[in-house]
Structure formats: C-alpha cells, structure tokens
Give the backbone structure.
Amino acid sequence: MMTATTVPAKHRRKKRQDIVFPIVNTIILCVLMFVTLYPVINTVAYSFNDGTDALRGNIGLWPRVFSTKSYVSILQDSAVYEAAWISASKTVIITLLNIFWTGMLAFALSRREYVLRRFITVVMVLTMYINAGLIPNYLLITRTLHLGKTYWVYIIPTMFSCFNMIVIRTYIGGLPDALVESARIDGAGDIRVYWQIIFPLCMPVMATVALFVAVGSWNSWFDTYLYCGGQKHLHSLQYLLKMKLATTQASANAAKTSADALKSSTMTTPITIRCAITVISTVPILVVYPFLQKYFVTGMALGSVKG
Amino acid sequence: MRNNKEKAIAIHKKSVWRRLGDQWQLMLMSVPMLLYVFLFNYAPMWGWLTAFQDYKPKLGLTGSPWVSMKNFAWLFSRQDFLNSIRNTLAMSIINLVLGTITSILLAVLLNEVRNRTFKRTVQTVTYLPHFLSMVIVVGMAQNIFASNGAVNNLLLSLGLVKEPVFFLGEGKYFWGLVGVINVWKEVGWNTIIYISAMTAIDPCLHEAAAIDGAGRFQRILNVTLPGIKSTFVILLIMNIGHLMEAGFEMQYLLGSSVVIDWSQTIDVFVMNYGISKQQYGVATAAGLFKSVVAIILLIGANTISKKLDEDTLI
C-alpha cells in the first residue's frame, strides 16, 4: 500500500524534472555562449566602425558607423606585414621542430626495455614543476648564449615541452606492442620502426600537439618584449598589438574627459585599429581550430590524467 | 624450450652497458633532448647564486661580490614584495576555487545535453577563448570593463549602480577581475578533462539509478559527481603544486601603476625589478623564494596524494 502511493508521486516528480531541466539547461548554456562570444563580436564590431565615432564607446554587436578604414590603414602598414611574417615563420619552424624531437623522445620513453627510460622521464617531468626562473633564464640566453636580439631566440629556447611529450607517449602506449615487436623481429631498427610504423599511426596526437605548439608560439609576445624589443624587424604580431594596447591604455588613464580623449586620440592608436589587428591576428587560429577539435579533446584527456 | 629460457636469462644478465650499446638508436632519439633540457632548464639554476650576490652584469657571476642573505633581508623589508606574495596566493586561490567550481558545473550541464549538435556547438564556442592570446583577452577586457563598456552599461540599465564603476582603475576590483577573466578564458577548456571522466562512468549506474526512481538531480549528485571524484582530487593536488603560479601575463598587461598594490604578483615583481630596474640580485632572490616555496608545495602535495592512494605526480 505504501509503495503503491509513493511510486506515482515519484514518477510525477521525475517527469516534471525531465521536462524542466533540459529547458533550463539549454537556456543557461545559450547565455553562456552569448557571454563567451560577446567580447569577440564586440571587437569585430569596433574594428569595422569609424575611428572618431568609436571614441564615444557604447558599440555593441554591430558597428554604428560602418567603415573599413582601419583595415585599409593596417594593410598599408609595412610593419604589420613584417610582424606577420615573423609570427608565421617562427610558428611553422617551432611546430616542426617540436613534433620532430618530442615525438622521437616520446617513442623512446614508451619502450619498457629502454635502460635510461626512468631516469630521462624523471628529469623531463621535473621541468614541469621546477624552473630556474626569469632572471637566470634571461642571463643564460642573453649573456651566455648571446641569443638576444636575434631571430634564434624565438626558436631555440622553445623546442621542447614535457606536457606534449606525455600526451604523445600516452598515445603511443595505447598502440599494440606487437607493432613494434614484429618490426623488430623483421630486423628494423628503432629509428625505422618509429618513422615508418609508429609516426604514421600517431597523426591524431601529432595534430593535437602541433596545434598546442603553434597556438603558443603564435600568441607569444613576451619573448619579443624581453629579447627583441629594440629590434623593429623582429617584432611579432602579438608584440605589435601589445604596444598598441599600452598606448591606448595610457591615453585612457590620462583622459579624464572625452575632450581629452579626443585630443589624445590623434597621438595614440585608435581603438578601431587595435581591434582590427586583433581580428587579423585571430583569424588564422579560428580557421584551424574547429577542425582539430576532436583530436585535441582526446589529447587533453590523455595528457592531463597521466601528467 | 630450454635453449630459449637460457637465452632469455643471458639477455637479462647482459650488463647495463651492453644493453645501452644495443639501444643506441633509442639513445639517439632521446639523449639530444636530455642535453637540451639540461642546458635550458637545469643549467640556468646556477644563476640562483645571483640571489646571494650584488650582481653586476659587467662582473658576471664569478666576479660579482657576495652579500650572503642581504637580498632576502631587503626583500622582506619591502612592503611591495610582501604585497606581491599576498597577491600571488590570493589570485591563485581565487582562480583555483572559481575555476574548479565553474568547470565542474559546466561539465555537468554539458553532460546532461542529449542533442549532440547542440553539445558540440557549446563546446566549440566555449573552447574558443582558450586559444586567444593574453594580449587580445586583456584588450577585450579593457573594452568590456571600461567606464562606457558593456558591463557598466548593463549595471546602469539594471539600476544596480548609479555611476559607472572604474573596474580597471581601483585596486579592490583587481583580484575579482582576474578571476572572472580567467573563468571566461578557461572554463570551457577545463571541462574537457571532467567530461572525459564522466563518459568513463558505466551507463548501467545511471540506468540503475533511474529505475530506482532517481531524478536528474539525484543522478547528478549520486552518480556523476562521485564518478569524477578521483579526477577532481588528482587535479586539486596538482594545482596545489602550482599555487605560486598565479599567472604573469594577465597581471602584467592588465595592471597599471594605479592598482599595482593589488595587481603585482611575484612574477611581475621579478620582471619589474630584474628586467626594468636591472636589480638582478634582488629579482633572482624573489624568484628563488618562489621556486623554493613551489618545491615545498609540490613535495607536500605528492605526499598527500601518496597517502590518499592516488597516482603520484611523477
């Protein structure tokens, strides 16, 4: 009797929950998507707005006075082209080098019979937790190795990341052991086994790691700031943007009234130009990343648990 | 048979050097990176000696005069260094707590979505900010939180404030601002690990709970959340090891001289004193202090995790 009365009550409650919950959930997630995208769309709207008009602020999701002047003036600026070339070339070189070295290292450390496996693994993993710090690194790179003020400072210090190595190693660990063993029995050396059998099978994880490395390199500004600030021909796109950010911020701090803002706007970078460079420097990432989504999701899950 | 066994024993008995010799190809693949890491990650640790010197670039590490603990004494007598310790810990704890709660919440909500296309769309959108550079994120934040920006407009139109709030110009807002921007940037990305833990939960558990009459909320509380407990614990322990890393780029880019008492983390302090003011000894001492605390935290976290019988960090 007791159960007979309680069960329908539970059923009713469950049903109401099952109808209400998905609706509320969908609304929450839509709001979240809006909040995530708003600053991005806002930036695009600013970049297509007229420069003087934009000083009044209050631009939402659509430009108030449409203008492509910002883009035209950027595309006539040779500094932007040079910076884009520096950013693109260093990104490609670093990504290839990382894939080359990190992949081979991960393969070697995935082999259980390798004598140095444990030693090298510990040495590598410790780098994720302990580093010498900014000043010792700065002194090493500028004073000992004399890499400062050269293009090499973008390439040489960023050739390895332990997190990426763990992601690849975990992926290789998931491949059947028989692949390596049978190739070894056929007389192939480890290097050949890796490049001919393992590497082609690792394309998904290599795509993930390539994305991580490429995004990191493309987005970096601090290396330029630290080592190549005075070398105009070595400025990266993000550093260019950082400098524009600084001038805009300074003028915003100084400007108490809108009249001041108008006056200073002639000397500093208008917000529209800054937003246009932001858009230009983000487009390459936006084009690439949705296609790699299914790969990096697995990659992240692999690396984080093991790391 | 016997022959094979003997062979196996013989291989096993080969000296380490012989086995290394046989593995020269593996060494060729791994030792270059080992040397690389020694050069770029371990060799600079010699530079820690600078912390005990009055370092002069002209004299170098060997020629600069030794001052024992003077740099550390100077640091701890400075209010701005003490502030930066406080700021570092405060911001990383805010980031940790806020970041963990929001990403678990979002992961739970995403896990309940049945429509695959919608789920994927939400994921693609929320992962996006992770790929934006800090320069861009800070630029956007300056637009959004400006006195005529979107947040102030919203607050004004809702009548919550009478005058625009100077989010960027007052120190008391800085920690919260960093917390909010970090959540905006990373919340989607951080769900990846939790969602993969949730998909590993046996669906039978959900079905059994549903048959027993558990509603959505009860299933979330009693099946989903216990299912990600071990992931949560591992990530929490790892993050304790990273407690001294409150971030550098955001504080450096978003902060200004007006809010420096609240924005300067240890990393920013090192940058300001070491690179801008060229006081290498003091800045290295600050960095070394940070590293030592980080190592202590790491060892502590590792001990806790061993006690909890979870995977160790290394």
